[in-house]
């Protein structure tokens, strides 16, 4: 399969999944159809819009390819028409979210390499593509974004996916890199949720504060050494 066509389909799949997740958030907040559409577009297209704006390689693809906006709106319609809740949805939510994360991290990295930027930029924009839409959506809803440490590993999984996709693409295996990166990101995200993996919090170590008496003893000791 043509690598560009594969990247496009993977990208659209991520748009659909994240648009549905945005619609689920809209339902949880009892928003109207406009609210569903806005959150679906922010969630489904936000990361890609940020990536394409930073790449400065022409207008963002979401504005030149109608399939992207239509796919995001389709996700909004699905979430609006179908009450995605209950045991079945709870079980399906994690895999959908994880797969979308892995897909976008891999796609974002490869699109960055395609415009001639280096591997570091590819990894960075792969992560931005994966988490940017959810970040914007959470900020709009006045929630603490998930990637800021209130949940299991998320951005870290996107980082791993972007690194693998970048490495394999540089080795000439772009198609395999897309699939392998997406799979790695999804699997790590699911494992993190299952095992409860989180990044460590700050240690909060403070240097000892010597008392005045201790400082005076140290000064006297230093003075004696100078006289010896």
UniProtKB/TrEMBL annotation:
- Domain (Glycine transporter): residue spans on this chain: 9-82, 96-167
UniProt-listed InterPro entries: Gly_transporter
Keyword Transmembrane tagged? yes
What do the Gene Ontology cellular component annotations say?
plasma membrane
Would you say which domain of life the source belongs to? Bacteria
- Subcellular location per the Swiss-Prot or TrEMBL entry: Cell membrane
This protein's membrane topology, according to the annotation, is: Multi-pass membrane protein
Q: Which residues cross the membrane?
A: 6-26, 33-54, 66-84, 96-114, 120-140, 152-173, 179-199
**What Pfam families does this protein's entry cite?**
Gly_transporter
Q: Does the keyword Transmembrane helix apply?
A: yes
Q: Which UniProt keywords apply?
A: Cell membrane, Membrane, Transmembrane, Transmembrane helix
Q: What PANTHER family does UniProt report for this protein, alphabetically?
A: INNER MEMBRANE PROTEIN (PTHR30506), UPF0126 INNER MEMBRANE PROTEIN YADS-RELATED (PTHR30506:SF3)
Give the family per the record. Belongs to the UPF0126 family.
| Name of the protein in question | Trimeric intracellular cation channel family protein
Give the organism the record lists: Ruania alkalisoli
């Amino acid at each position: 399969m043509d690598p560009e066509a594969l990247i496009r389909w993977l990208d659209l799949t991520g748009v659909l999944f994240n648009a549905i997740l945005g619609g689920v958030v809209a339902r949880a907040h009892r928003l109207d159809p406009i609210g569903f559409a806005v959150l679906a577009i922010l969630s489904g297209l936000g990361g890609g819009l940020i990536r394409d704006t930073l790449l400065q390689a022409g207008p963002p693809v979401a504005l030149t390819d109608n399939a992207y906006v239509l796919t995001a709106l389709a996700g909004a319609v699905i979430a609006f028409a179908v009450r995605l809740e209950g045991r079945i949805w709870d079980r399906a939510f994690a895999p959908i979210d994880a797969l979308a994360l892995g897909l976008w991290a891999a796609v974002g990295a490869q699109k960055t390499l395609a415009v001639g930027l280096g591997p570091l930029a590819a990894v960075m924009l792969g992560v931005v593509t994966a988490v940017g839409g959810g970040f914007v959506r959470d900020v709009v809803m006045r929630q603490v974004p998930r990637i800021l440490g209130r949940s299991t590993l998320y951005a870290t999984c996107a980082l791993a996916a972007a690194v693998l996709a970048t490495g394999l693409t540089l080795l000439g295996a772009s198609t395999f890199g897309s699939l392998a990166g997406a799979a790695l990101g999804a699997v790590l995200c699911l494992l993190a949720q299952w095992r409860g993996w989180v990044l460590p919090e700050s240690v909060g170590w403070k240097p000892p504060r010597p008392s005045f008496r201790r400082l005076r003893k140290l000064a006297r000791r230093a003075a004696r050494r100078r006289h010896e």
